[in-house]
Every structure is written in structure tokens, then in C-alpha cells.
Amino acid sequence: MKLKTHIKIALGYFLVIALLGVLLRLFQIVNISINYKFIVHSHSHIALLGWIYTGLTTLIYKLYLVDKPIDKKYKLLFWSTQVTIIGMLVTFPFIGYAMLSIVFSTLFLIVSYWFVYLFLKHTSTEQKKTNSYKLIRAALWFMVLSSIGPWTLGVIMNTLGSTSSWYRNAIYFYLHFQYNGWFILALFGILFFVFEKYSIHIPKKIFNIFFRLFALGIILTFALSVLWMKPHPVLYILAGIGGLFQIIAFGVLFQKILQNKEVLKTSLSTIEGILFKTAAILIILKLIFQILGAFPIIAEIISSNIDFVIGYIHWIFLGVISISIFAFFNHFKLMVISKNNYNIYLIGFILTESLIIYKGSIIWLDYPLFNNYYTFLTVASVLFFMAILILFLKQFRNQHKND
Asked: CA-to-CA distance for 263 and 250, rounded, in angstroms?
């Protein structure tokens, strides 16, 4: 199994979504005769299911299943998954949500369940005793839970219509349990695998506090996704409690990480240390944003401002999740990333985030944008695309090495 090829495919998807991101920026400065919403659908689906899903499942396979007698099954699963992703990539830009794109999306859900089945069935008894396994297993179940959202969309569209609040909440349900449940919890699982690899002991009591509080926080913070409806005050309280639980959970874990920083310092390369530190800062800020978002005044400001929502989503996907994935790819020798390459990526990320949040703030304060704002945003997006292109091409320099 040439897992480095799988990573190149994942990075290829990342390159495509970066290109689609540039295209979305260009809509504001030139006349493009294609459907904007269709490109948005393509951008979001390939981001979640192409780049992040392919990257995370490849990592999980390498860490837990690579030595199991399932090569043929996994090859069939992997390439079946790619067919569904490519199917979405070639249908969404042209027809949006229509019969063919929905078929590919549905088939993707089915093959993702197959991956969960293979993981649960073929991990060994010894593996199942580890903390990392417990986290990844929970992450995969959150992925299954998130799929309730897409399954209900068809029913909602046929009964209540796409303008219904239930339609919007079904999408938010899917997104929340994808990035907060499946993606982030899986990354913590891989982090604990690294701890176990270097014999960094996390006491059972500490792990249970972290795991239970963080998982409960994932469930409770879903309330943040429905605050746009101005619901009963209880939901604001639940959202705040969930956010607080996750801050406490991360604080408990972070304290143990600091106690073992010397072991980690000698076990990680310089670039990996930089990547993990950046991801840690970003996730701490993300947890703070959650708490702030539970306050009614702030919740109303955010829910009525699409740029704040986009900025937050990009913060998680392009910041917390993607940078963590880069670090793990490099650590497990699936990808090579240089400090210079990462610096370009980080500059592109900071510039695009700053400009998006700036626009949200300007709209909130009812001020005019500065001249040529969209041109600057497009240039920043091009820089981001170039960083991923350089990273993608860099992987082919090591093509002769064995996986």
C-alpha cells in the first residue's frame, strides 16, 4: 500500500479547494458566467470529504490497520471512496444539489460506514485498550452521528423546503459533529498515539476527565449552531456549559503536555514543534470563541454576519485541523513540509482570515470597505493557493522512497 500516494491525493484535493477558493474571490471583481452557489457546494464538500477525510482515514489506517490482512479490502474501500469524491467534484460545480451529485454524496456516506466497520473489526485487543483507540473510536461514531444531517435533508426538502429552519439546522448538525466531533477528536486520538509511542503516561483519571468533558462538550456546543433562531435561554446556557467543559478538558490535557515537554521536544522535529504550537494556539482561541458565542448579544451579531461565520469555519478547517494534519503527516513520514513552505501557508492563512474578519467587522459597524478590498482578498487567496501548490509538488521529489 503506497500510503504516500494517498497523501498526495489528499493534498491534490486541498489544491483543488484552494483553487476554487480563488475562483470564489474572483466573482467579486470580474464577471464569471458560472453558478456561485454550485462552486461553494463543491468547495465545501471537497474540503471536508476530499482533503480532511482522506487525510485522517489514511493516518488511522497507517497507525492501526496497516499490518492487518485487509490490504485488498482497504484498497477497494479507498478507491471506492475516491470515486464518490471525484463524482462530487465533477457534478457539484455544474448542477449543484441534483440527482447525480446527491447519489455520489450518498454513496460516500455508505463507504465511510464501511471504514468504521473495518476499523472496529480489525483493531487488535491490545490496541483497543489504548486511550488513542478510545478517542478515535468516539471520533468515528461522531462521524456516523453527523451523517444524520445529510440523510434528513431529502425529507426536509420534500416536505418543508430548503428555506425551512430545519434545513439549515440539518446542515449545521452535520458540520458541527464533523469538525468538532469527528475531525478534532480524531486528531486528539492521533496525538495520544504519539504519547503512547514515546511512553508519555497520561493517568487514567486525567484521561477520563479529558475524554468525558470534551465529548460532552461536543454534544452541548451543538446548541451554538441553533442560536441563530434565538431559542429558549436554556440553549444559551447549555452552549456556554459545553464550551466551558471543553476549556477545562483541554486545560487538564495541556498541563500534562507541559509536564512532558522535554520528551516531546526531543521526539518531534523543529517544524513539527512549530506546527503543533501553532495548532495549540489556534484551538485555544477556538475554545474561547465558543464561550463568547454563547452570549446572546454576540450570538446575534455572529449569526447575522456571514463573514464572521466563514472566518470561524476557516479558522477551524484551515487553521486547527489542516495544520495539525500537516504535523502528523510529517511526523509519520507520509509528507515532507519545510519551514519556508509552512511560513507561506501561515501568511496566506493570516491574511485571508484577517481580511474576512475585517469585512465582517466593517459590515457590523456599518462602515464602507476600503478601496480594492476584493482584489487584496483575491491576492491573499492566490498566495494561499501557491503555498499548497508548492507543498503538493514537493512530495514528488521523494517519490522514489518506499512507503
From this structure: 20
pLDDT digits (tens, 9 = 90+) for 162-186: 778 888 899 999 999 999 999 999 9
Let me know if residue 288 belongs to a domain. Answer: no
**Residue 26 neighbours by CB distance under 10 Å:** 16
- List, for residues 81-116, the tens digit of each pLDDT value: 999 999 999 999 998 888 899 999 999 999 999 999
| pTM, two decimal places | 0.94
Instruction: Over range 273-277, report the average pLDDT.
Output: 95
- Tell me, yes or no, whether 70 lies in a domain: yes
How many domains does the chain contain in total? 1
Cell of 108: 460516500
Least confident stretch, 27-36, 208-217, 273-282, 381-390: 27-36
Distance CA 268, CA 200 (A): 13
Residue 116 placed within a domain: yes
Neighbours of 160 (CB within 10 A): 12
Task: Return the closest-CA partner of residue 81 out of 6, 178, 151, 189.
Answer: 6
Structural domain boundaries enclosing 48: 1-122
Is residue 261 assigned to a domain?
no
pLDDT at 155: 84
Distance CA(272)–CA(257), nearest Å, equals 15
Of 355, 333, 332, 329, nearest to 342 by C-alpha is: 329
**Closest residue by Cα to residue 311 from 354, 247, 343, 260:** 354
Task: Name residues whose C-beta falls within 8 Å of residue 148's C-beta, 6 or more positions apart in sequence.
Answer: 173, 174
